[in-house]
Design goal:
Chain C: Keywords: Oxidoreductase. The complex is a heterotrimer of chains A (479), B (309) and C (286). With 309 residues, chain B is an alpha/beta fold. Chain B contains 13 helices and eight strands. Chain B has a single domain, classed as Aldolase class I (TIM Barrel, Alpha-Beta Barrel). Chain B is globular and about 60 Å long. Classes of the chains: A alpha/beta (479), B alpha/beta (309), C alpha/beta (286).
């Protein structure tokens, strides 16, 4: 009886995407062979090799930066904002037209559920280009002047491959910069498909250059003397290394780094929605989210009830094939990431926290981790302090609003936070006192092109999205 | 067990207003999320038959005649004359004066007769008239009574009056099952729907039902979500199960399946049963039948092939 | 026989107090002609540490005061400075070897700058904040908030330069540890006396005098400092070293600009560089 709603697999067809056996670099409007080695990108849900991708060498990066500089000097910085806007609108439209293809490819390369790539990532990507397109001819109203920086070197992570690309490229181009962008080594494919979209849009050669590779390629971009701007989203450690590398130069930097967000649930919270918010906060995108609500702070008086409801809800999460439209939680992006999640979870257990995982069958191939919650966690536990970047929730309790604030802010990070309560004045008080760049009150993990995103403290600096997102790509008016 | 709560208007209000609030946006997002679940092949065939078995086939028009009700009752017994494997609906739902006619046609088919009573749909009548209306329907053979609550009393905070009415109507029902209609389109907020749900469950309603079908909006996924959460939480507290009936506006198989997915994931599979979940609908049945035929024949059918009653 | 002057002892300004350096050190400060002006306290790394503690403990109260209140206090600094302008003109003339007219123009500009920034307290949020029209039923508001404790290396302009780097930081709610110009530190301490008598809570501004090369690295690497303003750093190698050290906890950095013309009206970025943007979402429903 209970099995009738074992929803039959409803896989999205893969036929829509055409993955080539190997990919070169996208430099100066063309796909070219790299001068370095190649590496493989795999489907984390099956461990199947999807394609070979070129690892850009220093010389390749130099060629890309030169192409970007040429395009900047000769074409893009001279073009009127209104004309730049049209290219960006074109790109937004093509992304919508090829949305299904992009979503499927994203899910294959990244492991995220098709439901998320189809309903969140790709629509927001298109919206982001659409939003910044409109800024291109209105920069004099931005408050940051209208002078571009030049060539932007951009390095993005694997958790939202195309969305992070959009967050980087759309404002950069709108402001009149040209870019050299490196996608993450485990998720290069949608960026390469985006390169094709640039060709379809007839974007002038060199305005967008995509160089694939790993850490070395990233270093080459950051340290290239002709790069005027570095934008990075990724780990705090790499962010610090970048901040050191650009010290003493004129390079402008924006960094969007790690987090350990507190999701604070008061006893008067709209409980059923709070449970959804907790689940969405930590299990959305397998917890591979820098702003994930990885620390649940729940008021002691409702802790038991919340845990009971949370576990019941977690038991309904469907973990499995990312291309299945019914899948809620997909594959962990890589073997390395899975090892890290396992290690920290084991440490959590060893430190005395109580572990509970949702009962679910995990596929035998690929990288998987069941949605997991730790109770009895204290601030001293490593699972309460370190970013796990996986579907693992640490639960702590509090008694008073002040204690909640104290615990929430007691971290070197400051990217995001959540508050759940029905009392309006308390929401505003909590929002004021939380030291975090994004505060979601009675909601969580919401993103929008018009809404600035970025952190306090070691979560980085600069904002992406909204009017504020232009600042990182314009000269401004220095005093 | 709720004696202390229903001792006075103020204690009842304290309880109802102490229930966790509902965030409208979050609730609607959850309902929409469940709506994207995709069901295929065998599960879908099962779901369609289950949905047919859950239909309270309804006619509640001023223009209703004995002939119309007879036709409807015949359809309820054998929804698809061409296919004997097609299950019967749960009930037919009519005004009290049509109960005898419906009962006569349905005989011992197992299809219940539900009657709307208590001055349906507005509920604006004196209490003794509402009780008489109820008794009248039960005496005529109704197996189930669908009552409306006094929304005026509810909205003005006279919760105890609403509670007492439900208790009295239930008493008048005798052995008939009582469904309590909230008219959620008039209650407006999800917080009110949650409070009404608890009020009706504490008063002993066997089912809680969204709407009369006479007010827009009628049944919606998020309203039903709130009610399913309520019956789930009520069972957690008391061990008693209460049924849920969305009514009005559910027209397609696709809609019906979304509701069933929600029943499964919110209240749980125990509620996937005509004893605990019903659809109040008139046109839904034909769409279910069309989709059922599509499943068995492999081609799309058309409305000409199903009876209009 | 003429009267013997009572000379002033120049100490540090930390947490609203005027302590000597815990190290017991001082250094000679000469006037523009090379004659002794006074001995200045030579702050140590421990003085820097104490200053950070004072700035951190002042941050909570200062950053949560109303903008109107902060405006009043910074305006009050301008008022008190106006009342003591002769003293500052004399100090500037002596220390920098400039004319009376020049000294007066710097004092004028410093006072005017304080007044200008005082007015910004309750406007900066309106100018750099945003209501964001997201594509969904959500209220979404971005507002600026102070970054926290900011370490500043002040430029040479002993009064106007110092005021121009400190005022934009405190008006938005940050608290400050500032290393005064190494060559002309005395006016900074006198300005400390003004601040101490202007209702500015202790610890909001802390003034260290001494060797930039010695103290600044401790502030740059301090994990409880949120930003470093290197405006006054003249040694490029030191500036790079400080920026590298600042990366340990991702301090917000303002790179050196020792040659800034402080008589020009500043842009907003002296304030915005050390502001965070906080964006709050809330559903809109009934």
């Amino acid at each position: 009886m209970s099995n009738i709603f074992e929803y039959a697999p409803a896989p999205e067809s893969r036929a829509i995407v055409d993955i080539k056996p190997s990919y070169g670099l996208f430099i100066d409007g063309e796909f070219v062979d790299g001068t370095g080695k190649a590496f493989k990108t795999i489907n984390p849900a099956t461990e199947e090799v999807l394609a070979e991708v070129a690892e850009a060498s220093d010389a390749d990066v130099d060629a890309a930066v030169k192409a970007a500089r040429r395009a900047y000097t000769r074409v893009w910085s001279r073009m009127s904002g209104a004309e730049r806007a049209k290219y960006l609108y074109r790109i937004a439209r093509i992304i919508q037209e090829r949305g299904r293809e992009l979503a499927v490819l994203e899910s294959i390369d990244n492991g995220k559920p098709i439901k998320e790539s189809r309903d969140v990532d790709i629509p927001v990507v298109a919206a982001h280009f659409f939003y910044y397109a409109g800024w291109a001819d209105k920069l004099e109203h931005s408050g940051y002047g209208s002078t571009p920086l030049g060539v932007a070197g951009q390095i993005i992570p694997w958790n939202f491959p195309l969305l992070m690309l959009a967050w980087k490229i759309a404002p950069a181009l709108a402001c009149g910069n040209t870019v050299v962008l490196k996608p993450a080594e485990t998720t290069p494919l949608t960026a390469l498909l985006f390169a094709e979209i640039c060709q379809q849009a007839d974007l002038p050669p060199g305005v967008v250059n995509i160089v694939t590779g790993a850490g070395e390629t990233g270093r080459a971009i950051v340290s290239h003397p002709d790069v005027d701007k570095v934008a990075f989203t990724g780990s705090t450690d790499v962010g610090k290394a970048i901040a050191r590398a650009v010290a003493g130069t004129d390079k402008k930097v924006t960094l969007e780094l790690g987090g350990k967000a507190a999701n604070i649930v008061f006893d008067d919270a709209p409980l059923d929605q709070a449970i959804e918010g907790i689940v969405n906060g930590i299990f959305f995108n397998q917890g591979h989210v820098c702003c994930a609500g990885s620390r649940l702070l729940v008021q002691e008086s409702v802790a038991d009830e919340v845990m009971e409801r949370l576990k019941r809800r977690m038991a309904t999460l469907r973990v499995g094939d990312p291309l299945d439209k019914n899948t809620d939680v997909g594959a962990i992006n890589s073997a390395e990431q899975l090892a890290k999640i396992r290690e920290l979870s084991d440490i959590g257990e060893a430190e005395g926290a109580e572990r509970w995982s949702a009962p679910c069958e995990l596929p035998s191939n690929g990288y998987w981790f069941a949605p997991t919650v730790f109770t009895g966690v204290s601030q001293a536990h490593r699972i309460a302090r370190e970013e796990i970047f996986g579907p693992v929730l640490s639960v702590l309790t509090f008694r008073t609003p002040s204690e909640a604030i104290e615990k929430a802010n007691n971290t070197p990070f400051g990217l995001s936070a959540g508050v759940w309560t029905d009392k309006g004045s308390r929401i505003l008080s909590m929002a004021n006192r939380l030291r975090a760049g994004v505060v979601w009150a009675n909601t969580f993990n919401k993103f929008d092109p018009t809404s600035p995103f970025g952190g306090y403290k070691e979560s980085g600096y600069g904002r992406e999205g909204g009017r504020h997102g232009l600042e990182g790509y314009l000269k401004g008016e220095d005093s | 067990m709720y004696d202390d709560i229903v001792r006075s208007d103020s204690s009842l209000r304290r309880f109802l207003h102490g229930l966790p609030g509902v965030d409208q946006v979050g609730c609607e997002a959850r309902a929409a999320g469940l709506g994207t679940r995709s069901i295929k092949t065998t599960a879908k065939a099962y779901a369609i038959d289950l949905a047919i078995r859950m239909v309270d086939l309804t006619t509640l028009e001023g223009a209703d005649t004995h002939g119309k009700v007879k036709a409807l009752a015949s359809k309820a017994k054998r929804p698809d004359p061409a296919d004997p494997s097609c299950p019967a609906t749960a009930a037919v739902c009519v005004y009290p004066d049509m109960v005898a006619t419906a009962k006569q046609t349905l005989g011992d088919s197992g299809v219940h007769v539900a009657a709307v009573a208590t001055a349906f749909p507005s509920g604006r009548a004196a209490m003794d008239i509402k009780l008489a209306d109820t008794r009248d329907a039960v005496e005529a053979g109704a197996d189930e009574i669908d009552m409306v609550i006094d929304r005026g009393a509810f909205l003005s905070g006279r919760y105890l009056d609403v509670y007492d009415e439900i208790v009295q109507v239930k008493e008048a029902c005798g052995d008939a099952h009582l469904k309590v209609i909230f008219e959620t389109g008039e209650l407006q907020t999800y917080d009110n729907v949650r409070r009404a749900s608890w009020l009706a469950m504490m008063a002993g309603g066997h089912f809680i039902k969204t709407s009369t079908g006479k007010v827009q909006p009628a049944a919606t996924l998020p309203v039903t979500l709130i009610m399913l959460e309520a019956v789930r939480d009520f069972r957690d507290q008391t061990g008693q199960m209460v049924g849920v009936k969305p009514a009005g506006g559910i027209k397609t198989t696709k809609d019906a399946i979304k509701y069933l997915v929600m029943v499964n994931e919110i209240a749980g599979p125990d509620w996937l049963d005509p004893d605990w979940f019903r659809f109040g609908a008139s046109t839904l049945l034909n769409d279910l039948l069309m989709q059922r035929t599509k499943m068995t024949t492999g081609r799309y059918s058309g409305p000409d092939y199903f009876t209009l009653d | 026989m003429s009267r013997i002057d009572v000379r002033k002892t120049y100490k540090l300004y930390i947490g609203g107090q005027f302590p000597r350096s815990e190290s017991g050190r001082s250094y000679v400060v000469n006037d523009a002609k090379g004659r002794l002006l006074a001995n200045a306290a030579q702050a140590s790394r421990k003085d820097a540490r104490d200053a950070v503690v004072a700035a951190r403990s002042a941050f909570g109260g200062w950053s949560t005061k109303t903008a109107y209140n902060r405006a009043q206090i910074v305006y009050r600094i301008a008022e008190v400075l106006e009342g003591r302008r002769e003293q500052f003109e004399a100090e500037l003339k002596a220390a920098e070897g400039i004319s009376q007219a020049k000294a007066r123009s710097y004092v004028d500009a410093a006072i005017d700058r304080l007044v200008w920034y005082a007015g910004w307290a309750d406007k900066i949020t309106q100018v750099v904040g945003n209501a964001n029209p997201v594509a969904g039923p959500y209220f979404n508001l971005s507002t600026p908030e102070p970054s926290g404790v900011i370490a500043v290396v002040a430029p040479r302009g002993a009064l106007l330069g110092l005021v121009s780097v400190v005022a934009p930081l405190i008006i938005t709610g940050n608290t400050v540890v500032v290393i005064a110009s190494e060559e002309n530190p005395l006016t900074a301490i006198t300005l400390g006396e003004v601040m101490a008598t202007s209702d500015l809570p202790g610890g909001v501004v802390n003034v260290l005098t001494g060797s930039v090369a010695e103290i600044a690295p401790w502030l740059a690497s301090h994990m409880d400092v949120n930003g470093i303003d290197l405006t006054g750093v003249e040694d490029a190698a030191l500036a790079t070293e400080l920026e590298v050290a600042g990366a340990d906890n991702l301090k917000r950095v303002r790179r050196p600009a020792p040659d800034t013309d402080w008589l020009v009206e500043p842009a907003l970025d002296r304030m915005t560089r050390f502001l965070e943007t906080k964006t709050v979402w809330h559903p809109i429903g009934v």
